Amino acid sequence: MFRNISVIGLGKLGYPMAEFLSSSGAKISCYDKDLNLVKELKKNHGEHLHEQGLQNLVNNNNDLVFHNKISDCIIDADIIYITVPTPSKLDGSFSNEVILEVLDEIANVILKNKKSYIININSTVQPGSIESEIIKFLENKGLKNNENFYIIYNPYFVALGSVIRNLQEPDYLLIGSSSIYAAKKISKFYNALYKNPKIRLLKFKEAELTKLLVNTYLTTKISYSNFVKNICNSFDDISDLRVLESVGLDNRIGSKFMLPGGPYSGPCLPRDNLSLKKFCLDHNIQNSMSDEVQKINNDTIENLYKVISKLKNNYNIKSFGFLGLGYKSNTQCFEESYSIKMMNFLKSLKIEVFYYDPYLIEKFDAKKVHSFDELSMQSDIIFLSYIDQQFNPIIQVKRDKNIWDLWHHFNESKYNRIFHKDSDFKNFKVIGDNLDTKIIRFNKRFG
Predict the structure, then answer these.
(1) Beta strand pairing status for 430-431 and 27-31?
(2) Quick one: pLDDT at residue 411?
(3) pLDDT tens for residues 330-364?
(4) Is the CB of residue 421 less than 8 Å from the CB of residue 236?
(5) Is the distance from CB of 294 to CB of 278 less than 8 angstroms?
(6) Region of poorest pLDDT, from 215-229, 280-294, 368-382, 396-410
(7) Beta bridge partner(s), residue 165
(8) CATH superfamily of this structure's domain 4-202
(9) Looking at the DSSP assignment, which residues form a beta bridge with residue 202?
């Protein structure tokens, strides 16, 4: 059992991980080079992250200990968790620059104090990085692998907004290691932290590739769903929702992500697809799948643009409101948000854009409103960007409004007419401020 754990990197994933690890009873020492972030975390304990269940861990009587230097943070650590960004390069691969900056300081502590550490890399890295770059970097500092340091690759399988639940109830724990000693130590820790955890021990490159393949399988499943949606939407008497729900009932396929909706987005799926493409290119492996998945995703975005153009040209839409602008609920993240791409397209058509998002604090090139009521007043049509339970009462009790429900969130709504396909727009009319009550429904998928 680890008594002292250090966590380096306290971003959207690192801080929830630190608080989760505090439930083990171990002392959790933390560091982040962003002093303003640390100050904010000390003040509001991650409330800005909107992570469900986080505050329960904050109040578990095992407070995090913050440090201003990595050397102070790791001095008595049994294991070091590194959860720092690995941004994508222009070629699609991941940069390990920030990881190496952290390892440089860790190496100096090892050399000075003659103490060995188990170093757990949680950040997603390019397959082959651990052995070809990370271990070699430490060896070039004069350290011996599996003697002065022990590397573990143990990436997250989490989604922003549900990080705590994902950490508490993982499908399995993926661990890459070349050390029996380190593998046994981390397995013992996780067996104490979880009840009967599924632990998958692999070689480094196997684990690195597995992390990418899990996410790229999801992108494939999403693009497949959108491909099926396009087939179904070519016929007035076929429901894409019912077809895909039926396909997903086969246990070999499963219902998760097997529903019609928008393109995949967020901080992981798009870039992991590009990373796999680069990995295959580097190793001369034929890979047409990554390109096709991305093409379908791009086509899905283009189809959203086509609907917007039809709304403008055929129905004289002059204002457009987004209920939610990020890529999902319960997070400040808006990376690769298709709503923001739609917003930019709307601006190019000279359509006035408004948005209401209870999670985002950044400013965008659109008019932010502070309530659904205000959004309803300003917009000819409202686009429901993601599923959020707090949207339920405000949509159902406010004034009649045209709502484009991409996610089939109000599938059982008794308050509104439902439109499934482009052909249903024949009944859509906008006359001045007199707006018929309709829900324009196209697709649904939790992404």
Answers:
(1) unpaired
(2) 61
(3) 888 898 999 999 999 999 999 999 999 999 988 89
(4) yes
(5) no
(6) 396-410
(7) none
(8) NAD(P)-binding Rossmann-like Domain (3.40.50.720)
(9) 176
